[in-house]
Amino acid sequence: CIVLCLALAWLRGSAWADEPSERICLAFVGDVMLGRWIAEQSDRHGGGYALGPVSPLLREAHLAFGNLESPLTTAPYRRKGYNLVAHPARVASLVQAGFDVMGLANNHITDHGAEGILETKATLSDAGIGYVGAGANLAEARRAHIAEVGPLKVAFLAYDSTWGSIPASSESAGSAHPDNQVAADIALARQAADWVVVSVHWGQEYRDVPNQQQRSFARTLAQAGADIVVGHHPHVVQPLEWIY
Hints:
This protein is α/β, with parallel strands linked by helices.
């Protein structure tokens, strides 16, 4: 769990204040998986078993974002390999932990087909948690989630750069993948928010440094207007970098 605190000035009219009057804390968490043996241990030890240790950090933040690797659905499994699915009731663990927004753009979100995506996003919405990066169609998958902290608005976008999920189309459910429309997505989000956060599922598992593709894409996102780029998928902590 990485907690990043940003000192931001409240808006005064149409310009930023000269001195920050408030401190905004945004918490970012990598891959969150509530299925398999985590589900078994949660049944044994209680719903707060998996995320309880980091819950204080998440709840102290104004906004907490995580990448949800386990679809919350009862739909049948439609792929081969690791089935990370969790029962929709497991959403209570996310609520208890303090998550505000979950990214769905990753290589497991389409493991249970369109039905799995629809049930996952409905489950999150019913629990009061926002979602981004997947949806019933491409427009929804690419749509930013806007969260408010006082007078400030923070936009979240998410993309699956592993290409391990089924991409959404204009008529079918799926996830958002990087393409030549990403800059337009960021520009649109910028019109609706003060800060833009882009979540990317990328890189190679268990590599502790980012590869050249990650670094290049991060710079592309920054140049397009992203204020924060958050990566996940390698399952280890990779370095932070400032892009000027």
